[in-house]
Amino acid sequence: MTQTGDSNLGPRLTDGQQLLQDEVRRFCEDRIRPGLAERDRNHTFPADILAELGDMGLLGMTVAEGFGGSGLSALDLVIVVEEIARVCPSVAVSLSVSNSVCCWPINRFGTEDLKQRVLPPLASGETLGGFALTEPGSGSDAGSLRTTAVQNGQNWILNGEKAWITNAGAAGFYVSFARTNPEAGHRGISAFVVGADTEGLSIGPPEEKLGLRASLTAPVIFNDCRVPNSHLLGQEGQGFKIALATLDHSRLGIAAQAVGIHQRAFELAVDYARQRVQFGRPIADFQAVRFTIAEMATRLAAARSLTRAAAAAEDTSQAGRLAAQAKLFAAEAANQACWDSLQIHGGNGFSEEYEIAKLYRDVRVTTIYEGTSEMQRRVIARHLLQ
User: Fold this and answer.
1) Which listed residue (82, 135, 355, 370) is catalytic?
2) Does domain 15-128 have CATH number 1.10.540.10?
């Protein structure tokens, strides 16, 4: 199957970025697509594939070269995530999370000593990273988290439970958030880098998810978890700001994931419409199908362009707003694309024998994690109206 649609709208790709895109696309077709349905069916986490992506330097895209990373740009990141998500959204989110919400804040806010100890194994793919912010009673309202951290000599003692943590069980390090000053509201939240082998850290049962079944998602539990003072990320009380800055960056990865899913749903719709014959001719001849595909292609081009423009605006005053707009638009458009593509497939689309059924399950969470669509609208409005 050939890729259909405009693949390079938005900021013009350099020759190096075009080579990167081509290399990742070949890897996805050669190494990730084989066994795709089986991994989804059996909930198999593809550790070997992620290790290979590490060997390619794609788990250290947000890590400076001095700490073993690739030092790539946000635009490079969204190019890679989109290509992987087009084939396997589960692999894409595992890679995106490790890069965007673990490596990125450590690279940005960590001390030189912490970065030297933690980032090289993350960048090489020796291990993955996780982001422990969400709790059973704290989702969109991250400032209400209940996990606590109490200083005791040379350590902080963490207690609490995190929920819906991607890469839980495979990650070697978790950027984790806890309340260090209960009286200070969101200014009393601090960020820590917690090693998976730290005494007092445990992983709960994996979630049985609607989609993204080849990715790991589970609770992370802190029970008198002793974290060295040197693993405080940034300064005490800066955790909420670090979380928001990190989410501004990581939304680019989820937007790119949505664009990749949208691209694949579009391709499947086009191929099926050309091949499926009803009333003596391909359904691609019918106006209703043609108009639906035209709308899918237009929203795809807009989502890709906005996502890449947002990535190119990294570190500008518009970065947070554009990332929220990209995530909002791309996620909503991808959900609509999967709906439309499955509808074009008709009854066959309801069968797990057809790839669109898996995409329909996988795409649903893109409007929820890294901030719901409703929260993105709130972020956008705050930027515009403050």
Assistant:
1) 370
2) yes
